[in-house]
């Protein structure tokens, strides 16, 4: 798989001033930025910064960021699925996972998440990919946002469908463990039927549910 990484960017105004959305960002440039201390949904911000730099070094890894000057206030990651997950059992060359999307609380409600996705898919190369994402309610900042599980789910749905992600059924036990969890995917324009058939086999272990 040819993982071409052309660089794209756009500026937009928020109530906190102008920000730049750009990517994929090379690891060296990412290392020169500061990650905002509130980007801590998955691990402390300094550890998250290190993790993003490592992802950016991967052949398939893609990091899109929102930054204000040299401070990253949001990001989204794309890489091959975690080897421990079901989705990695068949290493489909052109299937990557939107692994994490995070924006600091101050920038929520500004459309920042949608802008991250918009820049992600400006690159025509992404039309060669099936991009999947797994949404688990225990990763959501329900306390910080004050939203219910279902309000948060609806917010995520609006954001993901803005980039042409759709729901996919699955019998994966982590996803079926709560009705708010879900599997979504974006099928690029040049994704072939073989890729989709292999994805279907990963989605269902219990064939009667297919």
SSE arrangement:
Blueprint: E1 8-14, E2 17-23, H1 27-32, E3 34-35, H2 45-57, E4 62-68, E5 71-79, E6 95-103, H3 112-120, E7 130-135, H4 142-145, H5 149-161, E8 166-168, H6 173-176, E9 182-187, H7 193-203
Parallel strand pairs: 3-5, 6-7
Antiparallel strand pairs: 1-2, 2-4, 4-5, 5-6, 7-9, 8-9
How many domain modules?
1
CATH superfamily: Gcn5-related N-acetyltransferase (GNAT)
> What percent of the residues sit in helical stretches (DSSP H or I)?
25-40%
Quickly give the CATH architecture.
3-Layer(aba) Sandwich
Main sheet: strands, sense, barrel: 9 strands, mixed
CATH topology: Aminopeptidase
Task: Please outline what is shown here.
29% of the residues lie in helices and 27% in strands. The chain is an alpha+beta fold and 210 residues long.
